[in-house]
Amino acid sequence: MYSSKAPIPPEDTLLVQPKILYYGTPVVLLTTQNEDGSTNISPISSSWALGDHIVLGLGLGGKAAENLQRHPECVINLPDPSLWEQVERLAPTTGKKPVPPVKAAQGFVHQKDKFAVSGLTPQPSRQVQPARIRECPLQIEAVVRDFRVPAYAPFFAIVETHAVIVHARRDLVIGDRHIDPRQWSPLIYNFRHYFGLGEPLGRTFRAEV
Known about the structure:
This protein is 12% helix and 36% strand. It has helices at 63-70, 84-90, 101-105, 114-118; strands at 23-26, 28-33, 39-44, 47-50, 53-59, 73-78, 93-94, 109-110, 122-123, 132-133, 138-148, 156-168, 173-174, 178-179, 188-190, 193-195. The protein has a seven-stranded antiparallel sheet, covered by helices on one side.
């Protein structure tokens, strides 16, 4: 009997169990306020934006989650690929003291002054208390709107923030409000490796520039 259905090709995928699912997301250097008013830096790679709200995924064992519950303000600093080594200097450090056993077993060490260890520069914010990072081309001051720990993932927090002011390096700006995608390149965390963007492929129909 004739069938219009095309033959099903052989399976060309494999069932895998990746240890992590960081499949290519921008790196964020999240700054939060410590108890003594100093600024902590936490490199994270779980974030996404919806309008002027940015959702962050944080481990509860880190200093950032602790700080945001006490002082619900932060700066979402976005590094470019040239800063990957500074980011990596921060990667094995934590502002928690003593270092939580789980982190200690993974090789984390306590570091109070994250600016010193990374070689980055603090810069005062306009509307929130935590400092910005001068070297990051984009810096988003934000306030926390919701902080919750899901029952299905009790070791993580989902933090909803509202962007209140955005700082962009002058050479990235077109007109008075557009970020030039030809100039801006985020640092991408791709299965625990650092990447930048490749050549542009095109633009969506909603692009204004």
